[in-house]
Design a protein that fits this description.
Helices cover about 75% and strands about 0% of the residues. The protein contains 20 helices and no strands. The chain starts with a helix and ends in a 16-residue tail after the last helix. Helix 7 crosses helix 17. It folds into 3 domains: about 180 residues, Growth Hormone, Chain: A; about 55 residues; about 200 residues, MFS general substrate transporter like domains (Growth Hormone, Chain: A, Up-down Bundle), CATH 1.20.1250.20. One of its GO terms (molecular function) is transmembrane transporter activity. This is Drug resistance transporter, EmrB/QacA subfamily.
């Protein structure tokens, strides 16, 4: 792997880790923040929702902004905006100020994540994509696990403000090295001058906003599902209209023609199923530990860290495995292991030895790491340079949605299980066991798409080892 590609991947990986830690660490600090702002914990969650909505709305426009102003400029300014918004969050003295700060932080994050990944993709040779992907995907797996733990640590031993202040030194280092190593050349002068597709932006932005809010409501207790499903229905209509519009304009905000490439389409379809399953874990497993095992938020996060260790330990092996075996073999076999490790969690109960639980979580973390890296590598294997920006925008948008879909799917399966067992909102062990079973069966659906891959698919990113 060339040094330039390595440095860019590491720079972007650090930025991704900062964003992932920030967006997940806040969850454990909500009770304390709510107390400081003199509001309820439920009301305090608007700070999280505001951030997620901004990501959903503004990620689709990131490709146009990068084409217009260059990847280095946009990425560096986005990190700067993220730092300033983080400082504003840390100094917030009331909920309204905090929500506005989170909105600004979400807008910056919506530029930082996809444009950072685009910088890696456009400066990395196809045969080095496996290694580059490994560096930029591990934060997406580590962040949701380490974030709540760090949030609990800061809140318990320092103050919740440090969840945001810690971004300052990390962000400054990222900016310094981004300006040094990331080139700012525009890929296409025609694209850099194209007008913004306002109709497509509004349709997709409002549609994704309604979908995010609808999914957020589904994950909560004692909610009117009519409102949730109405919002989801409206969102699907608007997103459908944005797709229809994209085929009737010269420069759409998101070009869906890239879905004609099989090695991109399958990570979008079957891969989203796998990522939904992956994103159920940070929600449902700590909840099991706290409600059934009686653990504190800090100790449940500490136990769940076994999964993060598995993620990190697996990273060196993902490169070798992807080079050694074709994507059909890797995604099918590992996709089955993902379903299996999810099902094994059915056997968790309070009296089970902690080392057994930690061992299963460790192995599950390894499996999730392998699947995540494999999908993210295959997705861009056969995408030509002129479609890379469009592919990246669409892929990152769905990857972000898979986080909300994962939480909502886990919550819905848990609500259904509690209803079936007549436990109401007082979740019991059998509710979690049924939920893990439902999630593992859902995971098997992803194999349908993976089996359609040929052994030659994605060959270009594996050729160096041959």
């Amino acid at each position: 792997m060339e040094k330039k590609s390595l440095y860019i991947s590491l720079i972007v990986g650090i930025a991704f880790l900062m964003e992932n830690l920030d967006s997940t660490a806040i969850t454990t600090a909500i009770p304390k923040m709510a107390n400081d702002f003199s509001v309820s914990s439920v009301t305090m969650s608007t700070g999280i929702t505001a951030y997620v909505i901004m990501l959903a709305v503004f990620i689709p426009i990131s490709g146009w902004v990068a084409d217009r102003y260059g990847t280095r400029s946009v990425f560096s300014l986005a990190v700067t905006g993220f730092i300033l918004a983080s400082v504003a969050c840390g100094f917030s003295g009331s909920l309204p100020v905090f929500v506005v700060s989170r909105i600004l932080q979400g807008m910056a994050g919506a530029m930082m994540v996809p444009v950072g990944q685009l910088a890696v993709l456009t400066n990395t040779a196809k045969e080095d994509l496996v290694a580059a992907t490994a560096y930029i995907t591990w934060p997406g797996l580590v962040g949701p696990i380490a974030g709540p733990f760090l949030g609990g640590f800061f809140t318990s031993y320092l103050s919740w403000h440090w969840i945001f202040f810690i971004n300052v030194p990390i962000g400054i280092i990222t900016i310094i090295y981004a300006l040094k190593f990331i080139p700012n050349s525009l890929q296409d002068t025609t694209k850099s001058k194209r007008k913004l597709d306002w109709i497509g932006f509004l349709l997709s932005g409002i549609g994704l906003m309604c979908l995010t809010i609808g999914l957020e409501l589904l994950s909560q207790d004692n909610v009117d599902y009519t409102v949730s499903f109405t919002l989801i229905g409206i969102s699907l209509l608007l997103i459908g209209l944005s797709v229809w519009h994209s085929f009737r304009t010269e420069y759409p905000i998101m070009d869906y023609n890239v879905l004609k490439i099989k090695t991109f389409r399958i990570p979008i379809t079957s891969g989203t199923i796998s990522k939904i399953v992956i994103n159920t874990a940070p929600f449902i497993i700590p909840l099991l530990f706290q409600t059934v095992f009686g653990m504190s938020a800090f100790h449940s996060g500490l136990l769940f860290m076994a999964s993060m260790i598995g993620n990190l330990m697996m990273k060196p092996a993902t490169i070798w495995i992807t080079k050694k075996y074709n994507f059909r073999q890797v995604l099918c076999f590992n996709g089955f292991l993902l379903a299996l490790t999810t099902f094994l969690q059915v056997f968790f109960y309070p009296g089970l030895a902690m080392w057994i639980i930690a061992g299963i979580l460790f192995f599950a973390g390894m499996v999730r790491s392998m699947q995540f890296s494999g999908l993210n590598t295959l997705a861009y294997a056969d995408v030509p340079p002129d479609l890379m920006n469009n592919a990246n925008t669409l892929y990152i948008t769905l990857q972000q949605l898979s986080v909300a879909l994962g939480v909502s799917f886990a919550a819905l399966s848990l609500h259904f299980s509690a209803f079936y067992h007549q436990n109401g909102n007082n979740y019991q062990l059998n509710d979690f066991q049924m939920s893990f079973t439902i999630i593992s069966l859902f995971c098997l659906l992803s194999l349908i798409g993976y089996l359609k891959l040929n052994k030659e698919d994605g060959w270009v990113v594996r050729v160096k080892n041959k």
